[in-house]
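User
New here, help please:
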Amino acid sequence: MNDKIRPTHLDRRATVYLRQSTLKQVHEHRESTARQYALRERAIELGWPAERVDVIDEDLGQSGSSAEQRRGFQRLAEDVTHGRVGAIYALEVSRLARSSADWHRLLELCGLADVVIVDEQAVYCPRDFNDRLLLGLKGTMSEAEQYWMRLRLEGGRLSKARRGELYFVPASGYEWDPVISRFRLDPDEQVQRAIRLVFERFRLDGSAYAVARYFARHGLTLPARDVPSRELRWGPPRQTLIGSILHNPIYAGAYVYGRYEERLGLVDGQLRRRKATLPQPAWPICLRDHHPAYISWDEFMANQKKLYENRTSCLTALDRRGAAREGHALLQGLVLCGRCGHRMNTHSCGPRRRAVYQCHAKLRPGLCWSVPARAIDQAVVALCLDVVKPPEIELALAVVREAERQGSEVDRQWALRLERARYEAQLAERRYKAIDPDHRVVARTLEREWNDTLTELERLEGEYHRVRRREKIDLTEEDRARLLALAKDLPTVWNAATTTHAERKTLLRMLVREVTVSPIEVPARQTRVQLLWQTGAVSDFTVPRKDKYTAQATPKGTLALLRDLYATKNKGDGEIAAELNRRGLHTGLNRPWNVAAVRRVRYDVGLYRPSPKSRRPPDRSAEGLYSVHAVAARIGVKPGMIRFWARTGVLDPVTHGGPGRPHWFKLDGATVTRLQAYAAQSARRRITGAEDRGLGQQGDEPATPSPDVLSEPPQPRRARQRTR
């Protein structure tokens, strides 16, 4: 027995600690594992009974660079702390720890608990200064050895990666060719077409979410490679999967090594490994034109810029345009502030979610200024529709060809998917027929698999027919004729109910690069709009800026057309609503017209025909008195104002009306002059109050009305134009 092993050590247990860095070493380097298990016999030879020798082999396949994931090492340290261990057996110091911090912590515990450390060559006592010095040197050399090994392995890996021959799991759409040490396109035609369709839809839609929505609407799936099994599996078109495809440079024919970097950091007081994405200039190895590509390198870089611009969820993304999303603000992401030059964001306010462009300048505290979006959007859209007049015949034919091409691409994807499902069904059938039918143990399983594949094939065929009917993949002659007609009438397509706001925004971005808006206060409240086209030309115009009391009133042009249709052409409310909707005109609340909306606006502006059953009194009675309508015509106001004056005592009727009885008034020159002056004074006060409200605050919020305006009797509701 060694003289360093005393009875106090033998009274406690001996622990044999086993560790190998990877499971591959455990499987292939069996001699090392056998040598470590043999240390149990060495413990018995040194005096420990066999029943008092423990073997800890939980850490086989675990790296010694850290003690965090090694449960066996943690249990060993706990046993040493509680004085249950008298000796630790290990093949060498590196088996216990490759980290100086973990190693010296274990030495400190062994020194305090009087635990000896034993390897194949010697016995060490941590309480002895010379042994502790030797163990410390061995631990330092073990850590340095790990660094040297990692350095040599990383150097070899980098050397191979610089030649583009280092293997890593290929992305979906590619396979690794071991003969030439290069990536090659996946021979599966369905995989190739699915990947190409992702990039094609991103060119058209401009966002990963829109691509995922297109795949989901047409019932298409996407391939994804499972990293552990390295198998290609088909699944739903997730937005994260499409984003990884768009961000991966392998599809541009580039071999890239080092896009990610693992870093150690403290998370909740513990060391954690985090994967950080490096920017493109920091990639250590990037070999262009290394293998066949799905897109060019220039298109890949343009996609990265577009994806970067689409990110508007963080505070650093205030000056980015963002993707074309749903919402009423058609210039979302394109508007710049004419005061400070920053990009204005979109805000919805009020119970009706009215769109407003706001500027939150970084150099100015609070809000710089804001402006309603609707008037500016309408002016820009009208200018674009007026300017854009492409050749009708060529455009119509191009639209038809593009629709047929997209339909054929979706149909081809479904054809390949069904072909794969039929192959799986035929394969399951051949497996079932190849087995002995009397061997029912296996035949039942194969029969069930065959039935499952047939059921899946039937489900896919039914879904395929539903998609064809819903999306109209095959264009009929009627569909082609309709497309030709719509291609010649861009305003009709723009105002169609089936055209989404996102599609309108995408069309605008093809024409418009930026829009700068600036407030003008004098001589009138206006907004200056400077439109920069994609060609570099600039259009400069102004848009009247209304306050919140008139911002949602019926537009003057729409009101004039409604008057003409009702009074001149004698149209009904339903016909008027249909005509206004056909021309793409909306109400003051930006809604489609209906019969009720037309009737409300008519009544507000006094457009109505007397009912045949109505018994309106004559303008003059037999005694020479005037009716309400006659007084209103004489003074130049509405009948509702005369009734209001009668209620408030401004004008006393000679005969008070009641249910079924009209008011009668006596007019003379003095009364007419007094009422006309009163009406003119009230009109001036209303105009002055509106101007005070408009100039009282910055932006579009009106100031508080003056006391003069508040002292004026409120106007009757029928006398004001409602905002419908």
